[in-house]
Design a protein that fits this description.
This protein is mainly beta. It contains three helices and 20 strands. The strands form two sheets. The protein has a 14-stranded antiparallel barrel with strand order 1-3-4-5-6-7-8-11-12-15-16-17-18-20. It has a two-stranded antiparallel sheet with strand order 13-14. A hairpin with a 3-residue loop joins strand 17 and strand 18.
């Protein structure tokens, strides 16, 4: 019985720290605008629409007047599993939706711009149904919402800087099986900050940097077993800092080629301790996540009359090693293809983008929980659309 409870505790903490996204880097969700997604999220050195609040807030100094952008990102995420004995399972591929809202205002007679973004930089959920490794990992969901006011200053024609706080709220829920043998629900909030730099020394070249601070969520909620209401407990999860840099090259006004590189300090997701549990003692668990990179490349071609088309490629490194792999976070090295189309008008912009992600199969062996050993394959489809109104 004690060993079984240890397995339950392992599943709980791993579930809290993980929720499936379309990316390999842990539970990061960097898809925040279709114009950026269409070019492989290589947008930090361009950042010329209101979603710059996320990609590089210094870019909002390029915008005129007031602008409001509304977007919706939808993803169907599917991971399949094959055990060494031949048993198979797959995640629920029903679509999940994440909204984005951005608003900016540039003062007419001052080199100052301001903005507000509301978006979800982490999250989504995963549901394996009743897999061969049940009841050790089955279903989890992470909600993480950020409100990010920013102020940007165009120091000179070539250089803009920006900074602002982030106010972050998160909820984590999970259950081990449909009968809720083990279940948890908790929430917390934590402030952070972000800043950006945009340097444009020549019309053909642009450089951007974006930084987002670490946050910590001490999830306070209830932890129950065998259908009980549970006990009050808490578990702290560190959400990592990210640093992103980009270079944009525009050989003519009709072409924009950009390469971005982002680093995420996932090693901050290390030890998680439940201060109280139905098992009577706290649990401390080591995840041993690894820092990882995302490589973004994209091309945009202006087609005339305000229309444009984009293509992009992303390579995203995995962040969890085999020894601490958990199916609730089916992490792997991913290749992502991206396509986008849109229109810029005098008073209205619109954009749509499609993205797919796949890995050739990740074989896990030597896991701390041998039930998780096997081969995991991922194929995701995602669509994003937005409308921007200019006042």
């Amino acid at each position: 019985m004690g060993q079984r409870m240890n397995h339950y505790a392992l599943a709980i903490a791993l579930t809290l720290a993980s929720a499936e996204s379309s990316w390999a880097v842990g539970f990061l969700l960097p898809n925040q605008d279709p114009e950026a997604i269409g070019r492989g999220d290589a947008f930090t050195a361009t950042a010329d629409n209101p979603s710059a609040i996320y990609y590089n807030p210094a870019g909002i100094t390029q915008l005129k007047g007031a602008q409001v952008s509304l977007g919706l990102y939808g993803i169907s995420a599917r991971t399949s599993y094959a055990s060494p004995t031949g048993a198979t399972a797959h995640t629920d591929a029903n679509p999940q939706f994440v909204p984005q809202v951005y608003a900016t205002y540039s003062f007419k007679d001052l080199p100052i711009s301001a903005g507000l973004g509301v978006y979800a930089p982490y999250g989504l959920g995963v549901n394996w149904g009743n897999p061969p490794f049940s009841p050790f990992a089955q279903k989890g969901k992470l909600v993480y919402l950020t409100a990010n006011p920013v102020a940007a200053w165009q120091i000179c024609k070539m250089l803009s800087v920006s900074a602002g706080p982030t106010f972050n709220y998160s909820e984590a829920t999970f259950q081990v099986d449909p009968g809720e043998i083990v279940h948890f629900q908790g929430s917390d909030w934590d402030p952070g900050y972000a800043f950006g730099i945009l340097f444009q020394p020549h019309p053909m070249w642009s450089f951007g940097v974006d930084y987002r601070s670490e946050t910590s969520m001490n999830y306070s909620g209830t932890f129950g077993v065998w259908g009980s209401r549970g006990v009050t407990t808490s578990a702290e999860i560190h959400f990592p800092r990210t640093v992103l840099g980009g270079i944009s090259f525009r050989p003519t006004p009709d072409w924009n080629l950009e390469f971005d590189l982002s680093w995420t300090q996932w090693s901050k997701v290390n030890e998680v301790t439940f201060q109280n549990s139905p098992f009577g003692v706290p649990y401390s668990l080591n995840f041993d996540y690894r820092d990882s990179f995302i490589y973004d490349f994209g091309v945009t071609r202006q087609l005339g009359k305000g229309y444009y088309a984009s293509v992009g490629y992303i390579f995203s490194q995995k962040s969890n090693p085999n020894a601490t792999y958990n199916p609730v976070d089916p992490d792997a090295n991913l290749h992502l293809g991206n396509f986008g189309f849109g229109h810029h008008g005098d008073h209205l912009d619109w954009a749509v983008a499609y993205q797919f992600a796949y890995n050739g199969g990740r074989t896990v062996s030597g896991d701390a929980n041998p039930f998780f050993d096997g081969t995991y394959k991922t194929f995701n489809n995602a669509v994003n659309a937005s409308v921007t109104v200019k006042f």
